[in-house]
Design a protein that fits this description.
The protein has ten helices and 15 strands. The chain has about 375 residues and is an alpha/beta fold. It has two domains: about 120 residues, Rossmann fold; about 190 residues, Dihydrodipicolinate Reductase, domain 2 (2-Layer Sandwich). Helix 3 links the parallel strand 1 and strand 2. The longest helix is centred in the middle third of the chain and has 17 residues. It starts with about 20 loop residues before the first helix and ends with a helix.
Length: about 375
C-alpha cells in the first residue's frame, strides 16, 4: 500500500502505511506467524495510534500467532487493513469476540477495558491492558518486563485460565527503565520527576492538531483548539489530565502510585510535575534521585550502559544528550545528563535526563514484551 502520511512521526496514518521490512512478509515470518502451536491473538482498538503500533511491534519482533482478530468500535468495523501481507477486516468489539482468543492486547480506553477486560478473562483470555483501568488493583500485575517480570509469576498460557495484566503509564515506564537499575544498586529514597510530554500521549488526534496548529500559526491564522483548550504549537502548558484536590494532576499521581507498586515499596517518596510540550512523538523526563547508599556518576553511567532496553547518550564535550527526535520510533530509552546532584553530599544524589518513545516503549512495545513472556 502506498504511504499517504506527510509527517515522519504521525502514527495516526499507519493504517495506510506499510514499512519496508522484508522480514514481515517473507516466508519465514509467515510460517512463524501461522504455526498451529502459537497463541491466537486479538488487538482491541486496532485503528488507534497505539493499536496500529501493536501491529508494527508484532511484525518487527516476529511474534508467533496462529490467528489474529482486529477489533474496534462499531464505527470502525468493516474497515480493511493489511498486516504481514494479509488482508483483514476490522470487527466490532463484542463479548463474543474473545471466544478462542489466548492473548488480547487492549488499547481502546479505560471504559472499554472495564467493560470488556473481565469478559475476556471469563472466556479464558489473558488480557494485556494499556489503559489505567486496572493498574492499581491489588491482584492485577503492573509490569515492565525489564523491571519486575516476577509480578507475572503464575500466569501461564494453555491453562484455559484468563488473567489481567496492566501496562503502566507511559511516563512511568520511561522513567523506571532508567531509574530502576540505579535503584537496585543504591536504593532510591526520593525521586523528583519533571516530564516534557509529546502530543502522541494524547493520541492521534492531538498529533494531527499540533501539526495543523503549527501551519496555522506560521500562516498568521488563529490556531484550531479542539483537543486542548489552549494553543499547543510554539507553547507548553501543564498536562491536561484533571487536577486533583491535592494540586497534583492525575498524570503526576500515576507516577507516584505506579512507581511504588512496581518497585513494591510503599515508602519510596516520589513527586512529579508533568508538562505538555509541542513535540510530535516521544516523551522526555528530568529525574532527580536521592539514594540510601552512595552512588557516583561513573558507576551509575556504567550501570545504565549495561541495563536492558537502555542506551546512554552522554557526550559532555559535544553537548550531545538524548532528544525526543532521536528516540522516535525506537525501542530503547535514552539516558544522558548523568551527573552528581551538587545539592547533596557524599554521592547520595544523581541527576539524569531520559527520552523514550511514548507509543513504542511507553505503550505498544511494553505490552508485546509482556505477551512474549507468556510464550
Amino acid at each position: 500500500m502506498a504511504a499517504v502520511t506527510h509527517h515522519p512521526f504521525l502514527s495516526s496514518k499507519l493504517l495506510q502505511t506499510t514499512k519496508p521490512n522484508p522480514i514481515r512478509i517473507g516466508p519465514t515470518a509467515v510460517r512463524m506467524s501461522l504455526q498451529e502451536t502459537a497463541p491466537s491473538l486479538a488487538v482491541v482498538g486496532v485503528t488507534g495510534a497505539v493499536g496500529q503500533e501493536f501491529l508494527s511491534v508484532l511484525s518487527d519482533r516476529d511474534f508467533p500467532f496462529r490467528s489474529i482478530k482486529m477489533l474496534a468500535s462499531k464505527r470502525s468495523s468493516g474497515k480493511r487493513l493489511t498486516f504481514q501481507g494479509c488482508d483483514y477486516t476490522v470487527e466490532e468489539l463484542t463479548a463474543d469476540s474473545f471466544d478462542g482468543v489466548d492473548i488480547a492486547l487492549f488499547s481502546a480506553g479505560g471504559s472499554i477495558s472495564k467493560e470488556f477486560g473481565p469478559v475476556a478473562v471469563e472466556r479464558g483470555t489473558i488480557v494485556v491492558d494499556n489503559s489505567s483501568a486496572f493498574r492499581m488493583e491489588e491482584k492485577v500485575p503492573l509490569v515492565i518486563p525489564e523491571v519486575n517480570p516476577e509480578a507475572m509469576d503464575g500466569i501461564k498460557l494453555g491453562t484455559g485460565k484468563g488473567a489481567l495484566i496492566a501496562n503502566p503509564n507511559c511516563s512511568t515506564i520511561i522513567c523506571l527503565m532508567a531509574a530502576t537499575p540505579l535503584h537496585q544498586r543504591a536504593k532510591v529514597q526520593r525521586m523528583v520527576v519533571s516530564t516534557y510530554q509529546a502530543a502522541s500521549g494524547a493520541g492521534a488526534a492531538a498529533m494531527e492538531e499540533l501539526e495543523l496548529q503549527t501551519r496555522e500559526v506560521l500562516e498568521g491564522k488563529s490556531p484550531t483548539c479542539k483537543i486542548f483548550k489552549q494553543q499547543y504549537a510554539f507553547n507548553l502548558f501543564s498536562h491536561n489530565a484533571p487536577v486533583l484536590s491535592n494540586g497534583y494532576n492525575e498524570e503526576e499521581m500515576k507516577l507516584v502510585k505506579e512507581t511504588r507498586k512496581i518497585w513494591n515499596d510503599k515508602n519510596v517518596k516520589v513527586t512529579a510535575t508533568c508538562i505538555r510540550v509541542p513535540v510530535m512523538r516521544a516523551h522526555a523526563e528530568s529525574i532527580n534521585l536521592q539514594f540510601e547508599n552512595p552512588l557516583d556518576e561513573d558507576t551509575a553511567r556504567n550501570i545504565l550502559k549495561n541495563a536492558p532496553g537502555v542506551v546512554v547518550i552522554d557526550d559532555r564535550a559535544s553537548n550531545l544528550f538524548p532528544t525526543p527526535l532521536e528516540v522516535s520510533n525506537k525501542d530503547d530509552v535514552a539516558v544522558g545528563r548523568i551527573r552528581c546532584d551538587v545539592s547533596q553530599e557524599g554521592n547520595h544524589g544523581l541527576e539524569i535526563f531520559v527520552c523514550g518513545d511514548q507509543i513504542r516503549k511507553g505503550a505498544a512495545l511494553n505490552a508485546v514484551q509482556i505477551a512474549e513472556m507468556l510464550l
